[in-house]
Amino acid sequence: MAAPEGEDAVDAVLLVVSELFTNAVRHAGGVTGFRLEAGPGTVTVAVHDASTVCPRIHPLDATRPVGFGWHLVQELSVDVRVEVQATGKTVTAVVSCPTGVVNHVADGGS
Fold it and tell me: Who contacts 50 (Cβ-Cβ below 8 Å, separation ≥6)?
C-alpha cells in the first residue's frame, strides 16, 4: 500500500479507528481499551475487547451490507496484528502517515 498523503492519511486513520471500534462492539462484546500512538511516519491504533475469537475475513459480496470493515482495515494498514489473551484480544493496526499528518492526528486535529 502506498502511504496516503495529507487529509487522506487522516481519513485512513479515522476509518481504521471506526472499523475496529465497530467490529469490537458488533462482534466482541464491546471495547475494553483503546490506544492511539503516533510514531515516525505511522499511527498505531490498538483496540481491546473481551472476546477471544479472532476476526474472520468474509468474501466480499456487494449484495450484503456487511463484511467490508475487516477488508478496509487490512487495506489501509501496513501491519495488522491480533493478540489473544485470557481476558480477550487486542487488534492492532499500523497506518502509514506522513510526519506532519501524524502530528495533526496526535494533537487532535486542531
Answer: 28, 29, 30, 32, 87, 88
Number of Cβ within 10 Å of residue 5's Cβ equals 11
Model pLDDT for residues 18-68, shown as the tens digit of each residue: 999 999 999 899 999 999 998 888 999 999 999 999 988 777 777 776 677
Q: Where does 3-110 have alpha helices with state H?
A: 6-27, 69-76, 99-106
CB neighbour burial string for 37-71, b if at least 16 within 10 angstroms, e if fewer? ebeeebbbbbbbbebeeebeeeeeeeeeeeeebbe
Contact 47, 20 (CB under 8 A): yes
CA geometry: angle 67, 25, 43, nearest 5 deg: 80
